[in-house]
Structure formats: C-alpha cells, structure tokens
C-alpha cells in the first residue's frame, strides 16, 4: 500500500486561502436586487416610451414663440381664432355664397375651386367664395377637443360672422369633402347646396359590406394600411407612428407620387408651381393638423353617411358628388356604394380621372355651375 504524500502548507498560504474563501462567500447579491433592477429598467423603458408618443405643444399663431398672424380671422365662441380668405366678387354683391373646405395637408390658400374658377363665371354668376384654415392648419388655432361635429359648427359661426345669410353653399375636396358629410348631418338647415369632390372614406363607417371594404382596403399601399389602422385603433400612437423612422408611415403625409394616377401626375407640375405657401400649412405643428385629421377622419364616427336623410326633401337644394374612377387615394368602389344607398345624391364619376381632378382645366366652372343650378 502506497504511503500518503504529506503536503506542507505555509501559514501565509493558509491565510490567503482563507481570505479568498471569505471573499467568494461574501460576493452575493442582496435578496430581491435582480427584481429591483428589472423594475427600474422597466420604468425607464416606460418613461422613454411615454415621452416618444407625446406630441409637442403646438406653436399657436400670435403666441410669443409662434408664427405671425397675417390672415383675416374671426374669434369663435370658445375663444379660438379661425383664419379665412375671400375670393370672387365682394360678398355684399354676391348672388351665390360658397364656403370652401380644403383637404388634408392644405390651407385656405388651397381653395382649388376658387383659384381655378374662370373670371367670366365669377362675374356672370356673381360668385363669392370664402376658404378657411381648418383647426391647426395655417393660422387657425388648434382644437384639441375637435370632433366630427365641431367643424360644421365652426363653419356655421364663420358664415354668421361674415353675414353670408341664412343659407349658403359648401364645397369640400378630399378630406374637406369628408367634412361635408358632417355638414349634411349637423347643419343641413343652413345649406343651399353641397358638393363633395373625391371625399375621403372612413373604412369603419357602419353599413359597408365587408367584401367591398376589404377590396378597397387592399388597393391601398401597405404603409397606408398601417397608418389608418393606427389612427382608428390606437389614436394615441398616431404622432409616434407618423414621425418614427423604423417603418414607412403614411404615403400621403410623405407626399409620395406612388398614390397618384397618370392624370394626377400630369396635373402635378401645375399644382406645385402655384403652391408657394407650403411652410404655412404645418407651421403650428403636424399633430394638431395632419395627425388630428387622421384621428378624426378614420376614427369612430357618431353617424354613418349612409344613414343620412335627404337634406332637401322639397328640392330646395341638391347634393353632388364627383369622383375619378382611377382615384388611387380614395377607392371609387366605396363611393359607388354610398351613391347607391343615397339616391338623392347626384353622382358624377369621371372616367380616367384620379384624385386631383378638380385642378383640371374647366372643372371648377362645371362644378360651380351645376351646384348653383346655372
């Protein structure tokens, strides 16, 4: 049997070994520290996420840090200011008085019907048109409490302060055309007639057949699927979605030409050449203008246009809708369905036309002549 090997350990080595053992034994995290670290990290992530989705405070016109006021404005009952611009003959000499509602990412200067109406028609029919900046656009104060109903009431106040009379006409283009549905719902007693030009459709309006909505929805670019979904289902994320850089956001906000058809692209140089006020449109911030438009336009409405009654049962006025059959921004199939459900709508479908057809030569003359019955 082999004898055991005796190993002599010095006192210094023994003390060092003991120290290392004590050090190793003492390197233990306090009880619950991992949970606390995770909670702090989670709280930090939540704080970052909260800050990321918060829109900046709008730069209200006339405020110390805001843009200058250059437009004519009225003060509304709730204290907000609404900027407007007058076109055509003086209002006191006018036979026909029209309120024009601009579209998405536009302002009072984008009154295409007023800007392209021929001088001959203006003088012969004595037409007066007033356009205005919708809340948050241009020089109109933002309206954080804006609803589907609030804008028609703003229009009514504008008409009253400008003394347009008991009845007036309304014309709306694109997102402004969508507003005309609200006018027909909430202020029909003030209308002499209405025209909807390529009005934006809300895919969540009750009454649409599911198959038609799906077909129309699939005609949009994938990035626009998400933009309208966020606006409808998670409006609190609208600002973040349209300002983040990870995924493509709304093609309309980005001014992509992929959403224009061939006729639109022919009109585009003319539109761009006359638009020397682009900075004015978003000067108070994008949230209370563009993003609020998306949240209201594609949010949950208090009514569906397809449930509206004829506002002119005694033929004292008429409602007209114009739409291009190659509109790549607002699919025509849903407009056709609305027109079928509302037989009192006079529906004009324009072959080969896209979304920008009101800018085509002579189109505004036709729209105004038909609207006022001349």
From TrEMBL:
Ranges in coiled-coil conformation: none
Residues covered by the AB hydrolase-1 domain: 98-359
Organism domain of life: Eukaryota
InterPro entries attached to this UniProt entry: AB_hydrolase_1, AB_hydrolase_fold
Keyword Ribonucleoprotein: no
Keywords: Membrane, Transmembrane, Transmembrane helix
Pfam families registered for this protein in UniProt: Abhydrolase_6
Transmembrane residue ranges: 29-50
Protein name per its UniProtKB record: AB hydrolase-1 domain-containing protein
């Amino acid at each position: 049997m082999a004898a055991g090997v005796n190993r002599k350990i010095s006192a210094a080595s023994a003390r060092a070994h003991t120290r290392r053992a004590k050090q190793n034994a003492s390197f233990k995290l306090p009880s619950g520290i991992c949970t606390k670290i995770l909670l702090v990290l989670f709280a930090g992530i939540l704080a970052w996420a909260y800050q990321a989705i918060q829109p900046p405070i709008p730069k209200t016109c006339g405020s110390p840090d805001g843009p200058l006021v250059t437009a004519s404005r009225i003060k509304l009952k709730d204290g907000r200011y609404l900027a407007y611009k007058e076109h055509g003959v003086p209002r006191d000499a006018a036979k026909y008085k029209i309120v024009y509602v601009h579209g998405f990412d536009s302002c009072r200067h984008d009154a295409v019907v007023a800007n392209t109406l021929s001088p001959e028609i203006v003088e012969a029919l004595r037409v007066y048109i007033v356009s205005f900046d919708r809340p948050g656009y241009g020089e109109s104060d933002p309206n954080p409490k804006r609803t589907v109903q609030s804008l028609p009431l703003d229009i009514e106040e504008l008409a009253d302060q400008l003394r347009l009379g008991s009845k007036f006409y309304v014309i709306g283009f694109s997102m402004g055309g969508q507003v005309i549905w609200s006018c027909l719902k909430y202020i029909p007693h003030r209308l002499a007639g209405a025209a909807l030009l390529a009005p934006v459709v809300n895919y969540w309006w009750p009454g649409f057949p599911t198959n038609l909505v799906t077909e129309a929805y699939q005609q949009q670019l994938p990035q626009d699927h998400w933009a309208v979904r966020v606006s409808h289902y998670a409006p609190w994320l609208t600002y973040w979605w349209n300002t983040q850089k990870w995924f493509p956001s709304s093609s309309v906000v980005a001014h992509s030409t992929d959403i224009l058809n061939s006729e639109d692209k022919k009109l585009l140089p003319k539109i761009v050449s006359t638009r020397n006020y682009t900075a004015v449109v978003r000067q108070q911030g994008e949230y209370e203008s563009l993003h609020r438009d998306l949240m209201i336009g594609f949010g949950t409405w208090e009514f569906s246009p397809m449930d509206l009654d004829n506002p002119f049962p005694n033929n004292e006025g008429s409602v007209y809708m114009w739409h291009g059959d190659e509109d790549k921004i607002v699919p025509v199939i849903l407009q056709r369905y609305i027109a079928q459900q509302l037989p009192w709508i006079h529906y004009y479908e324009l072959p080969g036309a896209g979304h920008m057809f009101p800018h085509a030569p002579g189109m505004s003359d036709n729209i105004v002549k038909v609207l006022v019955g001349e």
